[in-house]
Amino acid sequence: MLPHEWVEKAEFFRGEAKRHLREGVHWAACFEAQQAAELYLKALQVALMGVYEFTHDLSKLLQALEALGLKPPRSVYAAADALTPHCTMARYPGRKPVVYDERLGERCVEYMEEIVAWVEEVARRRGEGPGGDTS
Q1: Tens-digit pLDDT profile for residues 28-64
Q2: Is 117 helix (H, G, I), strand (E, B) or coil?
Q3: Which of 35, 44, 84, 99 is a Cys-bridge partner for 13, taking CB atoms 3.0 to 4.6 Å apart?
Q4: Which helix (H) or strand (E) holds 12?
């Protein structure tokens, strides 16, 4: 099963991303969407390998899972590539190459949901269902 503590934290960020999107705090929604996706991917790594990779790069996390024989779809890689920069870019004030608006917030939440759905599908197929206690 996916480690409960990891899923619990991921679900916190997932809920916060959706709440902040509704409230119009778009930079926070993007950051939290990235965090939720990262924690879900690391939860899957922990469930399958007992360890996780020390990176915020979601594509690198997917590559590590691919090395185990998993086959993330291109759409999951695209979502990972789109979300990764928001781990740092959204948190710091100043000049940004992107405008955090409703449209971007919605896309980030959609990317997060795509990654979470893939992780949950893989976990179900492997008997690692979400929320287990393999921390």
Answers
A1: 999 999 999 999 999 999 999 898 889 999 999 999 9
A2: helix
A3: 35
A4: helix 4-23
Delimit the domains of the chain by residue range. 4-125
Higher pLDDT, 65 or 98: 65
pLDDT surpassing 80 at residue 127: no
SS3 3: strand
CA distances from 89 to 57, 59, 72, 86 (A): 13, 17, 25, 5
Give the CATH class of 4-125: mainly alpha
CB < 8 Å & 24+ apart, contacts of 98-105: 100/26, 100/27, 100/30, 101/26, 102/21, 102/24, 102/26, 104/26, 104/30, 105/20, 105/21, 105/26, 105/29, 105/30
Half-sphere exposure of 21 (CA within 13 A, CB side): 21
Place of tokens 């979502």: 79
Contacts of 19 (CB under 8 A, 6+ apart): none
The two three-digit tokens of residue 19, written as one number = 């709440």
pLDDT digit string, tens, across residues 41-50? 999 999 998 9
